[in-house]
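Re: Re: token formats

Sure, here are both.
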Amino acid sequence: MKRLLRSVIDVRGSITQENLVHNFTKLMNTKVDWGRDEDTRIYGFVYQYFSAQLEMPSIQTVKDYFEGTDDLEVIERLKDIEVAEFYIRTNYSYLLTQILEEQNKIKAVALLRESQDIITKGIEIEGERKSGIRDGLTHFMARANDLIAPSFNTRFRGDVRNDAEEVGKEYLEAKNNKDKVYGRFTGIEDIDRACTGAKKGELWVHGAFPSELKTTFAINWCYNLVTRYNTNVLYISFEMPYVQVRRNIYTVHAASDKWTTLGIQPPGYVGLDYRKIRDGELSPEEEKFFLERVIPDFSTNKTYQSFEVYNPEKEKTMLDIRMEAELLHKRLELGFVVIDHGQWVEPRRGKRSKDYTIEVNSVVRDAKQFALQFNNNEGIPVLLLWQINREGKEAANKNEGEYKLNAFTYANEVEKSADVITTTYLNDEHRNNNTTRFSNPKNRDNPKFEPFDAHANLRNRRILGIDRTRQTGAGMNVEAQALFGLDSI
């Protein structure tokens, strides 16, 4: 531990301030157990000094402080720290990772034992009685992610004037490798040209009045990611049972353009009726197509990625959701998460309140943190569905289907935390014409796209750009672009 502290304290200029700060930004974003009380006190002073001065203290400054408090234990410990080996940058990251791994091994064993005790005999933790398999596994999942040593590739702090070389490299990489800058495309041309996909760390909120295509939009987006954009997705459905979500997905696949492109269906084919699939009332020809073509292709096509659907059996907080996603990410590399919908998420214990507005706003903030901090701050795009209030709907009726930010029920935090906000709107005219109105009340990192109409066939659950010839193939591999007849942006 003395090496960690030696490498963030200035000892006669042996390490530059830039490297000291670089080391400390890594250290301060971890949860090191110092073990010795004197090391804890030294770290506490160093942290306070840095917070006030934005530089690291000299060894003499640290000595002066603890001599002033007559802390003889710390003064003796500083003698050991002063002569210890120092490390910088990648060497410091490696040292820190090794120490955290050793500490976390011990914590992991203790956590496993504690979880076992919950399962086998039940114990009291933080004033709450926990027992049984469900409580034991939930307890383990809630704490296991903290035991994974962080990645140190993410920058948290620095003087941007010193980053000229990195900025140049970042630009050239963006120019030459679009996969690095593009996010997760919706497959709807008007949205994708404006946003170039949902990026890692972004919270995308999509709102609509009840039964006006929140879930349909989300399922179509996930379907396009899985079949066209080489992305594994997790769809968390609080409102709709698992089998209903699954039925929607297979219905969307039955309406894919690929069936006409491959000559399996004639031109003008628009898919199958969801209700007829649900009720087992397809015609013989439709049934044959569904059972022998649609289902086998979606379930066995090796070019498609995973479409995980999770329907929680009981209330879940955003922390619970994150644990599910983090654990799934260890098995398959997740690229997109949908939460359907935000008002069903339980606020975490520290944010529960008699004021419903406070609670739901805390859920939105937690969703943004989930997007930012996923997989040790690598980040992931999160789509949070949200229900529009009646006043917002009435205002949109008078405004050609365009929603304003105040239409989001009880959630002024949506306006603050969301990176992108989109909405869908329906009225009788849209329903009769199989269309919906998209609008974009907020777009933090891009110009907002203009409101536009899109195909929204309620019968086959498919949403497409109004002009299919303008669908984008950006982010798709060459084979998929050819199959769907699409071009890159």
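Second one below.
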Amino acid sequence: MESRVGMPKVQSAKEQISQFNRHTKIITFQTRFTQENAAEILAAQDWDVVMDGSDNAPTRYLINDACCVAKKILVSGSALQWEG
């Protein structure tokens, strides 16, 4: 949506998901996801679902691995351009 250009992805996703079901509790976490903070972020809340909106393959793989270890459901909400 053009009205969301410049808006952080976490806020845009929260607004969109809230339109589907206003009773859904959405907790956003806007920080760089790294090997050093992955376990801490996933343990910070009792997450039911993790939505990935990252723009690069290494981060996406890291989030996938962390969710597998933490036994969290992962939804990918981003697109990557393949340059191969």
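The first helix runs from residue 9 to 20. Strands lie at 49-52, 73-76.
- S.
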